[in-house]
Amino acid sequence: MTFTRATLSVLLALAVCTPLCAQTTQPKPGTAAVEVQAQKAATEAQNGSLAPLASKSSLVSSHAPFEAGDCKICHQSADPKQPGPLTKQTPALCLDCHEEFDSVLKRSHTHPPARAACTTCHNPHNANFRKLLLQEPRVLCTTCHDKVGKASSSATVPHKALTTGAQCTNCHNPHGSDVEKLLLQLPFDLCVSCHKVDTMVDAKGKKLQNIKTWLDNNPDWHGPVAAKDCVGCHVPHGSDHFRLLKEDYPQEFYAPYDARTYALCFSCHQEQAFSTAQTNTLTSFRNGTKNLHFVHLQQPGRGRTCRACHEVHASKQEHHIRDGVPYGSGGWTLKLNYKKTETGGSCEKTCHQERSYANRDAPK
Ligand code: HEC
Ligand code: HEC
Ligand code: HEC
Ligand code: HEC
Ligand code: HEC
Ligand code: HEC
Ligand code: HEC
Ligand code: HEC
Ligand code: HEC
């Protein structure tokens, strides 16, 4: 990184360049570029000018070359009262020192405003926010991404990942990435990089499972988890469903049966398998033709939800059957004592005395 990047030839070439000529030299013109220009104008109008901020008291960050006091590093004149036009436009100006951005902007997914002008988000001199930002990330990002902004601010189940630390940039690279949607890592790795502690609680103070430890200790991963698709079931930006789910899923242990409240499960599993009282094809959880899914889910007054018997992320037992169910807040677990048998299965000393079911021939 060097502070004396301006060469004479560059200065000469750009001497007659007005800010407008930047647009003709920007890469990838087209509708996106036009859109970015319009959005840039809107962001700037909202954030004010890019001049150095006068009030020192609220400053959070200051740019090393600006601190050096030599305006000529970027402007055509060294006179701080009238530094004049730039020697070149951003991003080229910035890339002279921030050489690593040359490769960032060549990644397979790049952010249009970063290709267009670094000053869409950064004040080149100093700022009231960290990293020379014109605004804190979520305000900055949602000036253009208003859909994400609206969805996340109106969500009844918000996700703290958007409001702590680097906010949107906890998960997204604002410049460019080799992962789709400008993500820092694949979604699964992102989620697990935070959900690996025992101390996390939800908005009501209820302890949240350490997902990483759980997955490490339970080898039978549910299909979409095995496909590493956390966002197959969860919305990262906030949701109107319990636990940031994409669709409805009852939040209680007991709930009266209504197919709509299981929309999440039934987006992949067949609903009839649970609402048909007698069957010899739709489910293997049946005693002869008596559908035991139906029996448990539809029990009047005390319909069990799926969590009474299944783990949703991963389990030790087959069919994602749980070992036990946490009971009360004291940390006691009611064991299910599920046993798979040759012809079906059984549960004992759980919600009831031992009961078994059979629906297939024992292997010969
Ligand atoms: C790291 C490069 C850099 C340095 C060093 C720098 N500037 Fe700037 N300055 C810029 C950029 C980029 C802009 C935005 C110009 C644009 O996009 O129109 C700008 C804009 C300005 C503006 C506002 C112009 C406008 O039309 O809004 C003022 C005033 C200014 N600079 C003053 C200074 C002074 C004074 C110094 C030296 C103490 C200085 N700058 C040092 C990069 C720099
Ligand atoms: C003359 C060299 C030079 C130029 C030109 C330059 N920078 Fe920097 N920039 C630096 C240095 C040096 C640092 C401090 C690096 C560090 O701390 O690792 C820095 C740091 C930054 C930071 C991090 C600030 C922080 O608080 O951590 C941002 C953001 C940044 N520059 C953006 C820009 C943008 C945008 C442009 C173009 C308008 C630009 N830079 C042009 C030299 C330059
Ligand atoms: C869409 C907004 C946006 C644009 C456009 C943008 N940046 Fe940034 N930049 C950010 C945000 C947000 C951060 C802080 C990320 C974080 O906290 O991890 C950042 C951080 C940085 C940093 C500090 C990196 C570090 O690790 O500390 C540098 C340097 C930087 N940007 C340079 C640039 C340059 C050069 C350009 C133009 C090629 C540019 N930015 C365009 C939003 C933007
Ligand atoms: C000046 C407007 C503007 C700002 C500010 C802005 N973006 Fe973007 N962003 C765009 C445009 C334009 C696109 C490409 C069109 C699209 O996919 O929406 C884009 C694309 C994206 C994408 C990829 C979307 C996809 O479907 O592939 C993500 C993720 C993203 N931006 C996140 C951010 C984050 C995080 C910030 C704040 C650090 C931010 N943006 C700030 C204009 C902006
Ligand atoms: C917890 C990680 C995380 C945080 C924090 C986060 N995002 Fe995302 N974002 C994602 C993931 C994962 C996707 C891809 C979702 C998918 O493919 O279904 C995504 C997708 C996007 C997209 C593409 C369009 C869409 O909705 O799928 C945009 C734009 C976007 N995010 C903007 C933002 C903005 C703006 C913020 C801050 C207000 C933000 N994100 C915060 C993880 C995050
Ligand atoms: C930057 C850290 C971070 C990342 C990355 C992250 N989370 Fe979170 N998540 C949190 C924190 C902190 C909480 C607890 C506070 C809250 O949001 O209620 C949480 C809560 C949750 C909750 C429970 C919300 C509730 O109130 O019921 C779910 C579900 C969740 N995250 C899923 C995900 C998924 C899926 C991903 C990946 C797309 C992800 N998280 C990525 C930090 C993160
Ligand atoms: C098949 C859909 C599905 C997939 C895929 C999925 N989840 Fe979940 N997740 C759920 C459901 C349903 C709940 C609510 C479980 C309950 O309360 O019984 C939940 C709850 C959570 C919780 C809150 C746990 C608690 O203690 O209450 C977190 C955190 C979470 N999921 C993160 C993740 C992460 C990280 C991934 C990817 C590794 C992921 N989920 C993949 C459906 C899914
Ligand atoms: C009372 C305990 C219990 C409840 C409640 C329960 N299941 Fe099951 N489920 C089982 C058992 C036991 C099996 C294994 C049957 C076998 O193959 O022997 C099973 C099997 C399954 C299967 C494999 C296909 C099949 O039907 O044989 C799926 C899918 C399934 N359950 C989904 C669900 C969903 C979704 C819910 C909630 C709507 C739910 N289960 C509620 C105990 C239960
Ligand atoms: C995104 C699609 C998807 C969603 C949503 C989904 N599942 Fe699954 N589920 C699968 C796939 C694929 C399999 C087969 C692979 C496996 O055994 O995990 C499966 C298998 C199962 C099995 C084990 C079947 C067996 O006999 O081994 C159970 C139990 C189950 N899911 C329960 C649920 C519950 C409960 C929900 C709702 C909370 C749900 N699933 C939501 C895709 C999904």
Descriptors:
364 residues, alpha+beta, 2 domains, 3-stranded antiparallel β-sheet, two-stranded antiparallel sheet, 15 helices, 13 strands, disordered N terminus, binds heme C
Q: Reading side by side through the largest sheet, how are the strands ordered?
A: 11-12-13
Query: What's the pLDDT, averaged over the residues?
Result: 88
> How large is the radius of gyration?
29 Å
Structural class: alpha+beta
Sheet with the most strands, sense and barrel status: 3 strands, antiparallel
Report the helical percentage: 25-40%
Tell me the β content: 5-15%
Poorly predicted regions: 1-30
Determine the number of helices (DSSP H or I, runs of at least 4 residues): 15
Distinct ligands: heme C
Count of separate structural domains: 2
Order of helices and strands: HHHEHHHEHEHHEHHEHHHEEHEEEEEE
Distance between the terminal alpha carbons, to the nearest Å? 75 Å
Number of strands: 13
Work out the oligomeric state of the chains in this entry. single chain
Cα shape? elongated
